[in-house]
């Protein structure tokens, strides 16, 4: 046996690394980033704040000030605290590790966010995917049956879902949270909350097994890597034991504290993007051979329904025109011929639309 076979777990060897394409020179519409930056005056003030940060010191691991600001500005209910992660990706990993009892399982609707399954595998948990219906709504009966059968320690519900963009029915979600009861945690992943403008956060006191997870990434701060998560104090305490003590660095901490004082700027950017989403959806719908799915996120899922070209063909034709989106057509049978595109500025949306038109005609 080789060194690799001797030491690396077979499930890790079987995985392919999460592929992030190099987007140099492209109009980048593949990763749900906010295309806007902070206004000049705020950037200068942020620069001065960051210059004052003591880079020689470890972060203070309680993160009291940043957490207080998140709770106050982002709607965490009174009496609830948050745990911070280096992006919500790290929070997913923390939850997986904390719950990785032998034989424990993770359940989520599919197609869904790939990190739920990846993180489960890394922690040695079994992942159970329950297909959505063809219209991407929850198959409630199948979810309830899977919960009964597998007793998952963790159930993920992304609200809105990625890569489909839709929000699940709230009554269905509540039934699932209740059905899981005290046999598992249900994580409602609200990465796209600024674009959905709906949230389970105020409902935390109703459900002791509910965990609400969010990130500042899609709001406009993807580069600083900061996620936060709230749930009942007892559960939060256990998750916090698994968190590396200095997981959020001092620059991220200072930048987040500063930006949260000006969160109205990011809220206004999200409002523009919601408006652009409506316009882009209407223009895409008007193209022949394109189906656009309803979205409550900052991206649109579209299906190519053209006898002459597949989603692979459109994806490559867009690449030739220096536009990078995400080809999800091979990700799941329900996504056949589907593409996912981030909603951006009016200028970039125009470039994308023109490239789409040309690609469909090619
Ligand atoms: C983007 C995304 C995340 C990851 O967010 P980070 O904080 O950048 O790690 C989590 N969940 C969903 C559904 C996402 O789309």
From TrEMBL:
Residues with N6-(pyridoxal phosphate)lysine modification: 218
Pathway assigned to this chain's UniProt record: Amino-acid biosynthesis; L-histidine biosynthesis; L-histidine from 5-phospho-alpha-D-ribose 1-diphosphate: step 7/9
Keyword match Membrane: no
Catalysed transformations (reactions): L-histidinol phosphate + 2-oxoglutarate = 3-(imidazol-4-yl)-2-oxopropyl phosphate + L-glutamate
Keywords: Amino-acid biosynthesis, Aminotransferase, Histidine biosynthesis, Pyridoxal phosphate, Transferase
Molecular-function GO term, any one: pyridoxal phosphate binding
Co-factor requirement: pyridoxal 5'-phosphate
A GO BP annotation: L-histidine biosynthetic process
Domain Aminotransferase class I/classII large as annotated: residue spans: 27-355
Stored Pfam families: Aminotran_1_2
Keyword Ribonucleoprotein: no
EC number(s) given by UniProt: 2.6.1.9
Family: Belongs to the class-II pyridoxal-phosphate-dependent aminotransferase family. Histidinol-phosphate aminotransferase subfamily.
HAMAP family with a match to the protein in the record: HisC_aminotrans_2
Complex formation: Homodimer.
Name the UniProt record assigns to this protein: Histidinol-phosphate aminotransferase
Organism: Noviherbaspirillum denitrificans
